[in-house]
C-alpha cells in the first residue's frame, strides 16, 4: 500500500509435491499465488484477523515448498501495536533466510507486505495488486535464489501491518533479526501487477545516486518499461514514495533501499482490486523484472554498501 492522502478447498489441495517438482523457472507460480492470496476466503488479509492468519499459513507453506529455512527457530516473528482507535493488535512478520556464497557479511533484505484492508461495510477488499502481487514477486525471488544461491545472505520477509502504518517493517527495524550494521540493502515490492501504460517504477536512485547505474542496466534489459523515479520531492511530497511503503522505516535508519511499484490506478484501495483485473502479460513481465533486478542488486551489494557508508 502507498499512503497517499481460492477457496479453502483449493488451498488444501495444493500439495508440496506439486510445487517441489514443478517448473524450474522462478515465478512460474506467481499467478497462482496472487489468485489464492486475493480470493474471497482470505477475507482481505486484515492484520490480526482469521483471513490474515490464512494468508500467513499459505505463505509459510510456500516457503516450505520452495525449500526455505527460517531466520531463527520459526518463520514467524510476532509483534504488537496499538491501532489508531486504541486497540491492541497482534501482527506477525514471516522471515526466511537464504545463505549467501560469498564471505561478505552484508545482508540483502527482500520484502513485500501480505496484509490488506480486510472487510469494510460488508465488502471484501481482496488486494490482488495491493499486495498479493508483491508477495508473488517475493516468492519468485526466493525461488530464483534457491535455484541459484545469491552471493550475499538474503532475508525473504513478508511483512504484516503495512496498511496500519508500516507496523511490521517498523518492528523489524527496531529489533532486526541480524546485526543492524550488516543490513546492506532493503528491496521492497508493493503493487507490481497493474499499469495501463505498461510501466513499472523503481524508486531509490534519486536520494541514493550510487544505485543509478545498476538500476539503469536492469531497465535496459527489462521485458517492460522500467522507469526510475518517485523518490524525491521535486514534484511535491505526495509524489515521493520513500515513506509510503515498507522501505520507509529502513530509509529512516539510513539503510539503503529500493522500491518497485506501479502508480495508483482505479482499483487502488477499492473492493474491485481482484485477481480478474490483473493483466497477465504485464504481471509476468514485472515478476521477471524484479527477479532480474534483485539478482543484479545482490551482485553489486558490497559496492552499494560501501558507497552508502555502511
CATH class: Alpha Beta
| Category from helices, strands and their pairing | alpha/beta
Number of helices: 10
| Name of the CATH homologous superfamily | Zn peptidases
What shape does the CA trace take?
globular
Structural features:
9-stranded mixed beta sheet, two-stranded antiparallel sheet, globular, disordered N terminus, single chain, 10 helices, Aminopeptidase, alpha/beta, 35% helix, 310 residues
Topology (SSEs and partners):
Blueprint: H1 8-13, H2 16-20, H3 30-37, H4 50-66, E1 69-70, E2 76-82, E3 88-98, E4 107-113, E5 118-120, E6 123-125, H5 128-147, E7 153-159, H6 167-174, E8 183-189, E9 199-203, H7 212-221, E10 225-228, H8 247-252, E11 257-261, H9 280-299, H10 301-307
Parallel strand pairs: 4-7, 4-8, 8-11, 9-10
Antiparallel strand pairs: 1-3, 2-3, 3-7, 5-6, 9-11
Descriptive notes:
The chain is an alpha/beta fold and 310 residues long. It has a single domain, classed as Zn peptidases (Aminopeptidase), CATH 3.40.630. Helix content is 35%, strand content 20%. It has ten helices and eleven strands. The strands form two sheets. Strands 1, 2, 3, 4, 7, 8, 9, 10 and 11 form a nine-stranded mixed β-sheet that branches. Strands 5-6 form a two-stranded antiparallel sheet. α7 links the parallel β9 and β10 (225-228). The longest helix is centred in the middle third of the chain and has 20 residues, at 128-147. Residues 3-24 have low confidence and may be disordered.
